[in-house]
């Protein structure tokens, strides 16, 4: 009786040689998919997957660090349960535009290849549509930190409950813009929307999902309503290449660039604004303030403020009780 091949080789077709005749040149730039991310997607994406886990640098080290993401096993009432360990999202707000563009197509492809739902093609298209909305915005290259924070908030909301992704969240974008302006005035983010380093360490987003109060997603902007983690700076994994955060500026230096628009707080505009330096306002530690020290509501002047608000609802151009967009000086 002929000796049988080991089971390892039993499924190999007889016509397929075990050792190819010619050598195969391996591509040194070929990156393997992170096993933890693939596993999370196969499980239905019940946990948030930060894009920091899908950059080229993260993929190069994914197999070396796979042991750090093992499930947590617990015994409760005699029942053995395994809980997937959360991904480290502490550096996601520091992604560069290049890393963001590396990571999101990889996430779309992995959803298309590995999600267990029968409609995974539609889900992958939905993700692709959302990322396309983000990256094609004219201001994405100017304020990448702002749009990355918006993406984090939307995808965290999707993880908590399914929502239509391929849809521009205008209200959420306005909230983020408001928080970005306040955080920039306070010196906790730079002009591109990235968190800056403070004396207490790196400001960063937490791993928590949307807040419980009203279900509003975390803005990710430190010092502007977002739930930022002001603790010790997170350790960087070997091979990661996230953007280096800037050092926080002194109050005198932060208040120096009064060339910024007092209406919207931005140094550049897509259309003429002519609101560079209203004489009665000044830039304080917490935002734009009036002579009496009361803080001005930027949202009221930009696009209207709804709901309870304790900030001053007066014009940033003349001080009267109308929004700056309706001020005769702005016309």
UniProtKB/TrEMBL annotation:
Region (Disordered): 195-251
Protein name per its UniProtKB record: Uncharacterized protein
Record field: compositional bias (Gly residues): 211-228
Record's compositionally biased regions (Polar residues): 200-209, 237-249
């Amino acid at each position: 009786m002929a000796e049988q091949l080991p089971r390892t080789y039993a499924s190999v077709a007889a016509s397929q040689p075990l050792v190819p005749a010619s050598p195969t040149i391996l591509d040194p730039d070929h990156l393997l998919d992170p096993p933890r991310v693939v596993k999370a997607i196969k499980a239905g994406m019940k946990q948030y997957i930060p894009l920091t886990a899908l950059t080229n640098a993260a993929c190069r080290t994914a197999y070396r660090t796979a042991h750090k993401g093992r499930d947590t096993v617990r015994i409760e009432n005699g029942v053995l349960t395994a809980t997937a360990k959360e991904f480290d999202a502490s550096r996601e707000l520091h992604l560069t535009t290049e890393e963001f563009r590396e990571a999101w197509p990889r996430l779309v492809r992995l959803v298309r290849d590995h999600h267990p739902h029968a409609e995974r093609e539609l889900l992958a298209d939905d993700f692709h549509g959302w990322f396309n909305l983000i990256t094609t915005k004219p201001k994405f290259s100017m304020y990448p930190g702002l749009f990355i924070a918006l993406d984090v908030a939307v995808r965290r909301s999707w993880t908590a409950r399914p929502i239509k992704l391929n849809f521009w969240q205008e209200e959420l974008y306005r909230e983020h813009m408001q928080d970005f302006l306040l955080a920039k005035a306070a010196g906790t983010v730079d002009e591109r929307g990235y968190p800056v380093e403070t004396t207490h360490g790196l400001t960063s987003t937490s791993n928590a999902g949307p807040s419980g109060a009203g279900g509003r997603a975390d803005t990710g902007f430190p010092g502007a309503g977002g739930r930022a983690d002001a603790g010790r700076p997170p350790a960087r994994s070997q091979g990661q290449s996230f953007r280096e955060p800037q050092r926080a500026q002194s109050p005198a230096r932060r208040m120096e660039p009064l060339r910024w628009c007092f209406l919207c707080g931005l140094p550049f505009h897509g259309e003429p604004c002519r609101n560079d330096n209203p004489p009665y306002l000044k830039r304080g530690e917490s935002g734009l303030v009036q002579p009496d020290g009361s803080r001005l509501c930027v949202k009221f002047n930009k696009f209207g403020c709804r709901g309870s608000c304790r900030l001053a609802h007066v014009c940033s151009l003349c001080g009267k009780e109308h929004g700056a967009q309706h001020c005769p000086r702005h016309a």
